[in-house]
Design goal:
The chain is an alpha/beta fold. The protein folds into 2 domains: 2-223, Spore Coat Polysaccharide Biosynthesis Protein SpsA, Chain A (Alpha-Beta Complex), CATH 3.90.550.10; 250-436, 3 Solenoid (UDP N-Acetylglucosamine Acyltransferase, domain 1). The strands form 8 sheets. The protein has a 9-stranded parallel sheet, with no helix packed on it. It has a 7-stranded mixed sheet with strand order 5-4-1-6-10-7-11. The chain binds uridine-diphosphate-N-acetylglucosamine and calcium ion (CA). The site of uridine-diphosphate-N-acetylglucosamine has 27 residues, from strand 1, helix 3 and strand 10.
Length: 453
């Protein structure tokens, strides 16, 4: 049977106190809406429709061509919101999942279970339900003596007896497309909030003699709706826990999961150890056997096998195998380190390449540099890459040795195997195997301090 999904996402999310539409707030490294779209398509939805309203343009540009976006001009209720997808889905030959853009924890497994339950019972509507210790705020599932779902009553409309029910409407449903939009048209807004309630479709279907069922969600954490930033942080923690669990079961050691942050988009290979305070973000990929952290942030970067990166920040860069970074190094965007490169303490590297086995062990700034293999860059060396207007390139060829506290005023080139004397300010190219010295010669004035003992 074919499957489509509609994601209701027109609300502003007033309680977020944000200019950004609620569904675009990020958890686990991507907007909430992205998680819901991902779960729906993993569950097999071939057609995705997003109902947007507040911040429509932003929602549309995030969704791009992943889903069709339809507009709900005024937020008149969940039934009205779903109605906006009629043009896209009226003749869809299959089932329609209805999801909310602010429930990012929903899993594809639960959605598949919902669809299978719906299909297995040949139902016209299936509500995903959960049992809540505190059901306040949710719609309650009202069943008849035989346990059949009779209707759903909202918090603001319920009697004391109805509100005592702990089985709630998660706001997620599976419908058969056939007859769905005709039934929604019959929903009225005569209720405490003056809104068109989608849950009212249950009573309408019951009247029409159609089959209505409820499928229980095993883990009520999954259906948590995010309304404010406190809940956003709870969702973040839950998602983070899932990612870390997956990594641990896949052979990654995580010394302290409470202080380790890995986006769902990151991949980490086996026998890597993540020490406390590690944050791995975006498209980062860590190859096997690496040791990352403590206190390290790596964003959109590739780290080769058996690297060690500690107390450092690495952004948009590529590290070959067996590199050693930190403590306290800052690798800025556009760096490529070949195998066995060492970037030591208090070193900043930007948009530079380092060949295999090259070392910048202490206290340096390397920017816009192309450095060959086996180069040693002494402590305190600075590439002076910026003349106030433009950036210039420094080239250091294989096997060169840069003495400590050298300034390399770019554009400048140091030839293969050349040696730069410590403390030099190099403004001219140094030929291969030459010694470059550019500093005042030392003179000693004898007996300068006559009266000191
Ligand atoms: C809804 C359900 C309630 C259920 C709860 C689960 C109704 C009437 N009630 O209540 O039974 O327990 O979800 O969280 O449906 N939206 C639109 N356009 C609108 C109204 C809402 O797109 O006109 C979207 C919102 O952005 C949100 C979703 O629909 O993503 C749910 O709307 P919300 O107002 O949060 O519904 P609840 O009052 O929580
Ligand atoms: Ca809600």
């Amino acid at each position: 049977m074919r499957l489509a999904a509609v994601i209701l996402a027109a609300g502003k999310g007033t309680r977020m106190k944000s200019k950004l539409p609620k569904v675009l707030h990020q958890v686990g490294g991507k907007p909430m809406l992205g998680h819901v779209l991902g779960a729906a398509s993993e569950a097999g939805a071939e057609k995705l429709v997003v109902v947007a309203g507040y911040g429509r343009d932003e929602v549309e540009s995030f969704v791009d061509d992943v889903a069709e976006v339809v507009l709900q001009e005024q937020q008149l209720g969940t039934a009205h919101a779903l109605m906006q997808s009629a043009s896209a889905l009226r003749s869809f030959p299959g089932h329609v999942l209805v999801l909310c853009g602010d429930t990012p924890l929903i899993t594809p497994e639960t959605l598949s279970k919902l669809v299978n339950y719906h299909e297995g019972n040949k139902a016209s509507a299936t509500v995903l339900t959960a049992n809540m210790q505190d059901p306040t705020g949710y719609g309650r599932i009202i069943r008849d003596e035989q346990g059949r779902v009779k209707r759903i009553v909202e918090q603001k409309d319920g009697s004391a007896e109805e509100l005592a029910v702990k089985e709630i409407n998660t706001g997620l449903y599976c419908f058969s497309a056939s007859g769905l939009f005709e039934a929604i048209e019959q929903i009225s807004s005569e209720n405490a909030q003056g809104e068109y309630y989608l849950p009212d479709i249950i009573e309408i279907y019951n009247r029409q003699g159609k089959i209505v069922t409820a499928c229980a969600c095993d883990d009520s954490a999954e259906i948590m709706g995010i309304n404010n930033r406190k809940q956003l942080a709870v969702a973040e923690k839950e998602l983070r826990g899932r990612v870390l669990d997956r990594l641990m079961f896949d052979g990654v050691t995580i010394v302290d999961p409470d202080s380790t942050y890995v986006d769902s988009t990151v991949s980490v290979e086996t026998d890597t150890v993540l020490y406390p305070g590690t944050m791995l973000e975006g498209s980062t990929q860590i190859t096997s056997g690496s040791q990352i952290g403590p206190n390290t942030r790596i964003v959109n970067s590739e780290v080769g096998a058996n690297c060690k990166v500690q107390y450092s920040v690495v952004m948009d860069s590529v590290l070959g195998p067996e590199c050693y970074v930190g403590p306290y190094a800052y690798i800025r965007p556009g760096c490529r380190l070949a195998a066995g490169v060492k970037i030591g303490d208090f070193v900043e590297v930007k948009k530079s390449q380092l060949g295999s086995g090259s070392k910048v062990p202490h206290l340096s700034y390397i920017g816009d540099a192309i450095i060959g293999n086996g180069v040693n860059v002494g402590a305190g060396t600075i590439t002076c890459n910026y003349d106030g207007k433009e950036k210039h390139v420094t080239i250091i060829n294989d096997g060169a040795f840069i003495g400590s506290n050298t300034n390399l005023v770019a554009p400048v080139k140091v030839g293969e195997g050349a040696l730069i004397a410590a403390g030099s300010t190099i403004t001219k190219d140094v030929p291969e195997r030459a010694l470059g010295v550019a500093r005042a010669r030392q003179s000693n004035k004898e007996n300068w301090r006559k009266n000191t003992k």
